[in-house]
Amino acid sequence: MDRPIVIVGGGVAGLTVARLLAGNGIKSIVVERENNLGGHVGQWACMATDTCLRCHCCSVEEMVNYALTSDMIEVRTGWELASFSPSAGIAKEALLKQTGTAREEIEQAEALVITTGFQPYNPAEKILLGHGRLDQVFTLAEVDSLLRTDKLSLFTGDRDGLKVAFFQCVGSRDASSGGNYCSQYCCQAALRMALKLIHEDPRIAVTLFYIDLQLAGKYGGALLKAAQDKGVRLLQGVPGEIRNSNDSLEVIIESQGQNLHETFDRAILSIGQRPNALESFVEQLGLSADDFGFIQSKDTLDSSRTSVADVYVAGTCCGPKNIENTVSHAGQTAEAIMADLRRKGI
Ligand SMILES: Cc1cc2nc3c(=O)[nH]c(=O)nc-3n(C[C@H](O)[C@H](O)[C@H](O)COP(=O)(O)OP(=O)(O)OC[C@H]3O[C@@H](n4cnc5c(N)ncnc54)[C@H](O)[C@@H]3O)c2cc1C
Ligand code: SF4
Ligand code: SF4
């Protein structure tokens, strides 16, 4: 096959598709808007305590190394897709544009895979939760980045033995903010972070408020037990309001029909995954968004193909996923591409 597959997005999904295609002798071009590969996972910390907590984040390093050293994968960081012409029967063309410049290049392509990912929910619209207004209120993404860059002191300040509250489902499972679905990753990510914080300072006391805990997967039960063994307090409830009170946070929690009042030193909001705005090339292709704004794939039983021939999707651009499910979906997409190429005798 002479013409490569163009993959837009160099996160876990894009890198997984590229790697599986490369393993089957199929060339691809990974077009990544940022200057680095890895997508969001490149910002998340290793959550290992005395033991690996299986967050899967380190798998992205291996994926990046593979992409950068494979003869079958051309990596274009700092580039994006301007348009794709999927005309049947003639060569398909991808118009690539260097990010922030007017430079453009045309690549002949066999197919297009969209793996443009998600964006973390911005809790600014939840004014009563105080994020951006109260210095002691963080998102899971912010604490993840601080852990990754060895700047946890910006979270703890000069205090030992903090009382920390996690609030789950912020911007997920929430019809009022347009995110009435489960973001899949955050219950386990919050439990891992709770264990990591306690590992860093065993005097930290963690309470985790949840709607119900989503612990699907082989290791969810073990993670819950580890958190309970370390004294993580688990309470059903959602935050109504977070206020400043003498350098602490006074929190009103709606729990089982009652309003609880509790005081904490720090709050961590477990923000959900939200769709990126539809890119102009997606709209030009005639693809639409689903009820929540994610790119619509063909149907539930064929979630890798789209309504446009030779245009595929993978990963969180078409719905929220953790890393394991992103890899699994990207694997299905690579299989679908190879099946279609075989069918066409390519
Ligand atoms: C705070 C937080 C913590 C998390 N922790 C975990 C965890 O511990 N374990 C876990 O399993 N999951 C975790 N997740 C979920 C995990 O981040 C996702 O499963 C994963 O990032 C999905 O990968 P992706 O490739 O679909 O998307 P992304 O990671 O969003 O990658 C998409 C890539 O596409 C690029 N892109 C977008 N548009 C364009 C364009 N037009 N042209 C070129 N490039 C483009 C982006 O720059 C990005 O590099 C976490 C999520 C959050 C928010
Ligand atoms: S899976 Fe996660 S916790 Fe385990 S070593 Fe890798 S990054 Fe660390
Ligand atoms: S994984 Fe947990 S925190 Fe995340 S949306 Fe689902 S139930 Fe809420």
TrEMBL record:
InterPro entries: FAD/NAD-bd_sf, FAD/NAD-binding_dom, Metab_Enz_Cyan_OpOx_G3PDH. It holds the Pfam family Pyr_redox_2. It comes from Desulfomonile tiedjei (strain ATCC 49306 / DSM 6799 / DCB-1). Coiled coil: none annotated. It comes from the Bacteria. Residues 5-330 form the FAD/NAD(P)-binding domain. This is Pyridine nucleotide-disulfide oxidoreductase. One of its GO terms (molecular function) is oxidoreductase activity. Keywords: Oxidoreductase. PANTHER family: ANAEROBIC GLYCEROL-3-PHOSPHATE DEHYDROGENASE SUBUNIT B (PTHR42949:SF3). Gene3D superfamilies: FAD/NAD(P)-binding domain. Signal peptide: none annotated.
